[in-house]
Design brief:
105 residues, globular, alpha+beta, 31% strand
Length: 105
C-alpha cells in the first residue's frame, strides 16, 4: 500500500524565491529517487492557462512523492542531503504543509 505524499511549499513572493527552491530540488532529485522506499519525487508548479476553473498560486511548489512507508519518509527527511537542502532554501520558504495520503477506494 504505497503512500502518496503531497508537500505544499509556499515561497516568498516576487523575485527568485520559487526558482531558487526549484533549482535546489533539481540538484537532489536523482539522490532522492535512489533512496530506499522512494517511488516518485517530483516538484510541480502551476501550468499557465486561461482555464476559468483553475486555481493558481504562483508562489507555491507542490512536491508529489511516492513512498513505501512513513518510516521511509522519516528516514528521507533525516538524510544529510535533505538537511542541506532545507538549510539552502530556508530564506526562500515561508511554509510547508505535508499530506500523507493513501488510496481511498
Amino acid at each position: 500500500s504505497m503512500l502518496t505524499i503531497i508537500a505544499e511549499i509556499r515561497t516568498k513572493s516576487a523575485g527568485q524565491h520559487r526558482q531558487n527552491v526549484l533549482d535546489a530540488f533539481q540538484k537532489i532529485i536523482p539522490t532522492v529517487l535512489a533512496e530506499d522506499g522512494c517511488h516518485g519525487y517530483e516538484p510541480l508548479i502551476d501550468h499557465k492557462s486561461n482555464a476559468s476553473f483553475q486555481t493558481q498560486e504562483p508562489d507555491t511548489i507542490v512536491m508529489l512523492e511516492k513512498w513505501a512507508s512513513v518510516a521511509h519518509l522519516e528516514a528521507h527527511l533525516a538524510t544529510p542531503h535533505m538537511q542541506a537542502h532545507h538549510a539552502a532554501v530556508k530564506d526562500d520558504v515561508i511554509d510547508v504543509k505535508i499530506k500523507i495520503l493513501e488510496s481511498g477506494v
